[in-house]
Amino acid sequence: MEKNRVHDVVKSGYAAVARQGGGCCGPTAEQASSCCGSTPENTHADTAALIGYADEDITGAAADANLGLGCGNPTALASLKPGETVVDLGSGAGFDALLSAEKLGPEGRFIGIDMTPEMLERARTNAVNAGHARTVEFREGLIENLPVASKSVDVVISNCVINLSPDKAQVFREAYRVLKPGGRLAVSDIVLSEPLPPDIGKLAASWIACVGGALTEKEYLGYMRSAGFENVEYTRKPAGPLLTPSLQDPMWQAAVELIGEDRINELAHTVFSYSITAEKR
Known about the structure:
The chain has 281 residues and is of the alpha/beta class. Helix content is 38%, strand content 20%.
């Protein structure tokens, strides 16, 4: 799909998530697919525990911002320190923002970037309700063109969002630009063990589900290194269980009809959740 089309499809799908409080059932057949890592509301906490969040994260002040959309825990991966400034690429309803605010303390600052007005509205409300409105802010924008000054932040994080971008090389260049020298990147994302079949990659439904836009490890880490990042390290685990919780769920019916249940199950074995750290020298 063209870049603008990708942005429109993803924005529409995640606007539906924000309105519904979790899950991703878009208004049209091609959008009625599970969003990246999304789960029914009653299993949001279970999903958060599965991907690395602690019990106190799931049940604390940030709980209302947990829409079950992640594939890892970049706030723990980043080893955040009091007083740091953090930018989140695709901040959603603010779950990672509120968890980060606790670690950054009153002298720290968190800037969430999201292109979906419905998510931004929800995130701002969550920040106020959690008592972090002074140190947490959310800005509308694209992660390919961050509304953040160059060399102004200590840490860039992202949770299952960069795979949704139609220009990942530009995303990493922007992340590198806004980081101070010595700054660090901590990303949880969906990465493939082998290229996606072209007919799957072009489907709108597969983009919303974090599969259509996913790259192989070589491509993904290659873009990161080309942007200038060094000391790139990662771990990975199978992500199929996050993406295919139940093919009988209504939110998956459009994808099943377009792709076929057998192919979805087959592709799930090539999908991995990566936890990646890197540094800007």
